[in-house]
């Protein structure tokens, strides 16, 4: 397929008017002034949705520009100005429109709007005027994470590497070289440690104030009353299908069911490699440790080559999905790693155009291909929900499902990777994917456990040193197979300085939930691949119109993350590793 000629610059183009509230205010004003009857609600909602899409896309584009070049002062200032000038009046206007809708007598929402209507009712009750301005501060604080980390480089072997470039070297078969790279990365991270310490404490104070303004309080360790940000975030994320206790129970289940399995797996690799113990440079989430000591797989060299491989994989899996990815190659991808580009990978939604945009930092590894499959799974989700659901509130899905399309795509594509790897390497790729499905769960549980502790068990005077101590305690429990003896433990203790802690608070356990759903989808695909794929695609189109359990059922799996379900899926993965 030939990619469209649209460029990334054209996709991210904006006019000055699009960044100003004055361009949207008349439309929101007209919606507020309209006479609203039950019969007129659908067209009124459509008008509200369209202007909301326009505002959302402008904010998304400005955020992308700032992330794609964290050194671009103009892009950073444009995003800050938009958030300060547009977000507060937008939030107030949305609240007035919610109240207007909720006040319509005798209105019964259509079946595909029932959940959105319930969420609007909850959002109206959750709204606090005091949080309108404070949320702008919060957004600006979170953006500082990209500013601190975006320009980070690693000095190694006479070159200045981006962080993803350095991480890719941790897959070297030469253990001495791995250690040297790891030490260089540790030196680089040390330069950002202090500013990130300062930033997280500022964020913690802001987040507690958001909760206090919403009248959500808890008692701190010294019996002081303070904002309960966990309760705040639970409401903000519309977590209605499970409680914090379910999450705490899952942490314990991972410790009991998965950590011993992961430790056995890693200790077995160490024995095969003739190592007495595994050191931090022997374990990287980006590059799997090969038990046979082989160098990492490098299926491509350039971002363009990766795009071509991915398109052929998606074509083989499903021609309709291949066509969607071909569309993305026309200005909806920014994949190459470069200095001053935020190092995190993600998929952004452009609501007005109904298109996704994927950001990555590829350097030529097998991990990069896997991440692209993951992020494009998100893109397929947005394509499907945007095409099926005209209202902005019905797009995407609840966060407990949103990682299922991405994680499942990593598995669904496994049978079509011959375009990227030699036949002899395909089993290695499959095995690494299965191993990672085990090794990821302790990390996800640790990330979530840290945040539960951070927001419920610390007081206003908490220090960065206390955060380090807690992370160290958790890391020893969830990753006991790593030997840090003789090393500076400040590097281990500051492992909490991770993207999601700063920019997506309390969003991480969803990866674990969804990984179990993804395994269930793959398990079904091994029995009937076409049927599993059709269920997968059908679930994506439902967007936000049904509950989380219903979304999982539509995909052919259960929404469960209890101990028996976890144990059952780990047994399945173990059997697949032995087959």
UniProtKB/TrEMBL annotation:
Arranged from A to Z, the UniProt key words for this protein are:
Hydrolase, Metal-binding, Metalloprotease, Protease, Zinc
**InterPro entries, per this entry?**
Pept_M3A_M3B, Pept_M3A_M3B_dom
- List each copy of the Peptidase M3A/M3B catalytic domain by range: 170-569
Q: Name one Pfam family in it.
A: Peptidase_M3
* Cofactor binding annotation: Binds 1 zinc ion.
Question: Which cofactors must be present for this protein to function?
Answer: Zn(2+)
**Could you tell me which SUPFAM superfamilies the record lists for this protein?**
Metalloproteases ('zincins'), catalytic domain (SSF55486)
The similarity comment for this entry is:
Belongs to the peptidase M3 family.
The protein's name in its UniProt record: M3 family oligoendopeptidase
The protein's organism comes out as: Deinococcus rubellus
Q: What lineage does the source organism belong to?
A: Bacteria, Thermotogati, Deinococcota, Deinococci, Deinococcales
